[in-house]
Amino acid sequence: TIRDRVVANYAGHAELASRARALALSTEPPDLHLAAMAELQSAMVGIALGEGDSAADAIEAREATILAPERRLAVELNVGPVHAAVWAERYGWADRVLTRMIDVARARSTPTEMTYPLCVAAQLELRRGRFELARAHADEAVRMALDTRQLVLVAVGLGALAAIDASLGRRDAVEAHLDRVQELVGSLGVDPDRLRDRAAGLLAVIEGE
């Protein structure tokens, strides 16, 4: 789940993905799309656990699957592997795929399909030092998440805003974003202290501590 990604909890995810793939291939006929989606989740976990280029290559090789979402599947199953590709610094590929996802969601007027891609796009642009574009993506993501009651994604968007302001040395703004996380979604098991630690690390680098 997205909440598990926020708190960096990957215990058991690789096993679940493996089981999902086996089940998809055991049907008659085999569900090759679901099997490929399961393989994407395995690759995402691989990047999170340090497998690097091989896992990122596996994600890029399944671009067609990522860009062919099905209504029966949660949108994070498509976006999560792209998020992981950002962690692996596949910035150009991730930018192209995220842009396509966001454009398609806008054309469909489906904000619930746009919020997570916008959060990831904010993190991508922050990594590339494009602070204003990162902020625009994160602001839009937070607004849409609030409007559609996607509260965990509110935390992801606010966390991105905190990281942006931390990178710019704006300590008061960072605290305001993280206090909002606590106010809005603390009861969902999203620990603002983890997001706070990440922002504190960025502030320490910027301030030379």
Please provide a written account of the structure.
- With 209 residues, this protein is mainly α.
- The termini are far apart.
- Helix 8 (111-127) packs parallel to helix 10 (151-167) and helix 10 runs parallel beside helix 12.
- The chain is built from 12 helices and no strands.
- The model has no long low-confidence stretch (mean pLDDT 85).
Give the topology.
Elements: H1 2-6, H2 13-26, H3 32-48, H4 53-61, H5 63-66, H6 76-87, H7 91-108, H8 111-127, H9 131-147, H10 151-167, H11 171-185, H12 192-207
Helix pairs in contact: 2-3, 3-4, 3-6, 6-7, 6-8, 7-8, 8-9, 8-10, 9-10, 10-11, 10-12, 11-12
Short description:
With about 210 residues, the chain is mainly alpha-helical. Helices cover about 75% and strands about 0% of the residues.
- Which radius of gyration do the C-alpha atoms yield? 17 Å
How far do the termini sit from each other?
35 Å
Biggest beta-sheet profile: none
Strand segment tally: 0
- Estimated share of beta-strand residues: under 5%
Shape summary: globular
Q: Average pLDDT value?
A: 85
Give helix and strand order, one letter per element, not per position. HHHHHHHHHHHH
Low-pLDDT sequence parts: none
Helix content bin: over 70%
Task: Tell me the number of helical segments per DSSP (H or I, 4 or more residues long).
Answer: 12
SS-based structural class? mainly alpha
